[in-house]
Amino acid sequence: MQYFSTNNPEHKVSLSQAVIKGLAPDNGLYMPERIPVLPKELIESFSEKGFQEIGYAVIGALFSEDLSKSQIKELVDHTLTFDAPIVQVEEDIYSLELFHGPTLAFKDFGARFCSKLMSMLQVKDEKTVRVLVATSGDTGSAVANGFLGVDGVEVIILFPKGKVSLLQEKQFTTLGQNITALEVDGVFDDCQTLVKQAFLDPELNEKLLLTSANSINIARWIPQCLYYFYAFSRLPKTGKKVVFAVPSGNFGNIGAGILAQRMGLPIDHFVAATNVNKVVPDYLRGDAFAAKPSIQTVSNSMDVGNPSNFPRLLSLYGNDESLFREKVRGYFYSDEETVQAIQAVKPKGYTLDPHGAVGYLGLKDFMSENPGYVGVFLETAHPGKFRDVVEDALDEELVLPERLAAFLEGEKNVIPMGKSFEEFKGFLEGLDS
Ligand SMILES: *Cc1c(COP(=O)(O)O)cnc(C)c1O
């Protein structure tokens, strides 16, 4: 199967080029040229199948022309080493818990799949793949842990000095092996600028094989459709219509849900829930799409003013804006409302993280306007990852899962870096000599 650029449907590349390049040269996002539709009986049979088995069927439908059966199995087995259970929170409302992976956020799914696929597609004797990532927290930890120890791949993480929580920092600065962390004397935007400059520098790209592992890469984006199939298969068969609410920032996660829907999964509606970074909810209510500077909130992994996956969503609806606006409902919430949701749900016996809380609020609003649905909101991170906000909201101490606590023991190891491109380029050039 080939992949086209959202900026030019005539520009098509192979799976391996799309994965290794990340972004199309015309700045577009890669999309599969055909979206396979799974037979209805197959989707119905998922309720008797395990997560991995569902994964073989879905990934097989997308990648069988490019990968062997055993490669597909290896890829899915490597990705799905932890569960994604649905937990009932209220009548007809379920939380899809995506935080049972190594770094306790949903990005573990995409990062694990991406690392395995990159190493599979890498031609023998080719240069080492250098994955450059700028992070403000969760992406760095998921990518570092996903790529740890993967042959032929080196990960270089750029993070802003003093701007990342201790817990997040420990998750990518203590690993060693093929993971290098650069502590940049600047803010997140400086890190992102350095990475972009490196991708555009002809001399560097002549010498090194550089790629990106953020959610614009199809290898991180596509596998996220798996847990929609799995969650749907575990819902009680009530005959009611199903809505999924997705707390969104760059809109990769919700885009993967729409991909699952286009592959035949009978999801009736999507809710795009955001914090006050509400470019997409504004668009869905009729405004033109207009990127804005991002605003800091308590759900900081969604503080995105220019959602990079937006063209992908439009493409999934055949670039039909009115269809897109009809099928996806947008809502946004303030920090105050987010904290109140965490407090209101606690007595029901469930602890939300600030991102899941935004998803929950969106689901509640949609369901009160549209009775008769069963709803699922995505719980994208463990509340312990956003300990300060959740502990403040609930006025009690959270018990950290062992995996999180274990990271705190490791020793931080970083290379200090200024924000000039010359210094960063010099560092990269030194890698192969
Ligand atoms: C990255 C992230 C999001 C946003 O996901 P997108 O795919 O960028 O929309 C939401 N919640 C958490 C916890 C995240 O880390």
TrEMBL record:
It comes from Algoriphagus oliviformis. The gene is thrC. This is Threonine synthase. Keywords: Amino-acid biosynthesis, Lyase, Pyridoxal phosphate, Threonine biosynthesis. Pfam families: PALP, Thr_synth_N. One of its GO terms (molecular function) is threonine synthase activity. Pathway: Amino-acid biosynthesis; L-threonine biosynthesis; L-threonine from L-aspartate: step 5/5. The lineage of its organism: Bacteria, Pseudomonadati, Bacteroidota, Cytophagia, Cytophagales. It comes from the Bacteria. The keyword Lyase applies.
